[in-house]
Amino acid sequence: MIFALIGLFLIALIFGPQIWVKYVLNKHNKSLPDMPGTGGELANHLLRQFGLANVKLEETKPGTDHYDPQDNAVRLSPEYFQGKSLTAVAVAAHEVGHAIQFNRNEPVSFLRKRFLGKAHLMQKIGVYLLMGIPLIAGIIRIPHVAGLMLFIGLLTLLSSVFIYMAILPEEWDASFNKALPILEKGGYVPATYMPAIRQILKACALTYVAAALADVLSLWRWLALLRYVR
């Protein structure tokens, strides 16, 4: 019984943040007629207001909203770029917050600027290595080689988890030191919606935590595979 409770607790710990983030973003992603503009229009306005006309504003694939420091571009998914929902406005302000961080060379942005892209690359390499284990093990039938591949893959995934956790201060700053004051003081959102905006910005800040915890679950699966290979 106690092991079952521990298992349920761990599952809730791992999946809870990711479920909550998706729930909050979806809950407030309803078009509101009293919103003065779309997420894309707000992002464009804020970039100009803060003297960031050099920052590109682009539409991107659904679910991939981000600021790209290498291309100096804010990218919003179509539903947020074109939408007039609270989520669209908050996500746009959050990503502009990142653009402000990087273009001001604020210390909080340095870690992401140097390591996040590399962490994504290492994560992909790790996944490819892990996906190739069954094929390699079936061809060469040397368990130690498959075990070595698994170990290297696990290290790459684990490094991405640490990077995600390390950049949390930057995400929090983009949400609550940049986006929230901008939306509050600028009057871009009616006051009655500000509690929801705070909730959305918290979800934006915790997106990487949710991803990191999901990676932890992935690590557990691969560790189980390692025991099988051995």
UniProtKB/TrEMBL annotation:
Coiled coil: none annotated. It holds the Pfam family Zn_peptidase_2. InterPro entries: Zn_peptidase_2. Keywords: Membrane, Transmembrane, Transmembrane helix. The chain crosses the membrane at residues 6-25, 121-142, 148-168, 203-223. The keyword RNA-binding does not apply. PANTHER family: MEMBRANE PROTEASE YUGP-RELATED (PTHR36434). This is Zinc metallopeptidase.
